[in-house]
Amino acid sequence: MGSNWRETTLAEVSTDVSYGYTESATDENVGPHFLRITDIQNGIVDWQTVPHCPISKTELEKYRLERGDIVVANRQQHRRELLFRFGPGSSIRLLPDSLQSLAYNSSCALRMVFDACARWWEFINGSKTGSAQAGANAKVLGRFPLRLPPLAQQHAIAHILGTLDDKIELNRRMNETLEAMARAIFKSWFVDFDPVRAKMDGRQPAGMDEATARLFPDSFEHSDAGLVPTGWEVRPLESEIGFQGGYAFKSKDWQSFGVPVVKIGSVKPGIIDLSQVSYVSDSIAQQASRYCLTMADLLIGMTGYVGEVGIVPPATVEPLLNQRVGRFILPSRGTEAQHFGTASLAVTSSDHLWKAGLMGRLRRT
Prior knowledge:
By secondary structure, the chain is α+β, with helices and mostly antiparallel strands. It has helices at 10-13, 57-63, 109-115, 117-125, 138-142, 151-190, 194-200, 210-213, 282-287, 335-349, 352-364, and strands at 6-9, 14-19, 33-34, 40-41, 44-45, 70-73, 83-85, 93-94, 99-104, 145-148, 220-223, 226-229, 242-245, 259-262, 267-268, 270-272, 278-280, 298-301, 309-311, 320-321, 325-329. The strands form seven sheets. Strands 13-21-18-19-16-15 form a six-stranded mixed β-sheet, with helices on one face. The longest helix is centred in the middle third of the chain and has 40 residues, at 151-190. Mean pLDDT is 76; it is low at 76-93.
């Protein structure tokens, strides 16, 4: 770092470090949006799903989020997940008291704090208070030390980071569009059986080449599940796939670096977030070697958000599977068949009826 970088603290570059509002959330549109810990997923908020809360005008002025504010969780189990930069928008948003907001003097300074992630999380881990849900309070957060370059350099750095943020957001939206298209195609082909119905009417299935169309029959037959394409079979899921629960690591096994371990908090809708993992040593990993995950493995949450599924992305170091997360194991029928099985299961298990069915079975047991 340059000699003209100055030493400071988070409190010195912030105009305010404050807790959120205490109130019960409601789905009724009775006030501003009320941002909760669970509404922030990997730094992203879907405001369409965020509830509301009643609040007086006086309290609203005190607790409302402003453009550019940064939101941080003050609960231990969420400390790595919840870092959210509040962007532009016309709606008023509030924070519950389990979140804290940072309003700051420079539009660049705090952005640089959080992009120095390793030091930030080391500081948080070393500053935890409490026992049941250990966290760092606003005063502690304000002590975080940092070095800042001159303002012109801050703006230049923030411009580059902001451009990357815009690209990430664009890619996220593109992925959402592609996922929606995949769901629509899957439903058309394997739920509504549109290709079969088209062939019954003597039509070429829409958006499908002849080679693919030949894979679908031109009639239905009765089954225990109702009408299915002729020649297709209805089987229980357990007859087609295996299932493996995760390894029960001990609390003493966790460390700040090493072999990554996928925990329940890593299972996001459609993806396993490898930035939200814990770590164990090589020796512990060797003991749990049969729980090693590979790219494209399909995992499912078994507690908390029961039934949430995600696919393991490429990783430099193959992660391990922790308890409370399960892995579906498809039979070896060739790479293409396995990819199709994974994709089909992923689309099916992300449906709300799948999750409702799982929750129903849990209540009965």
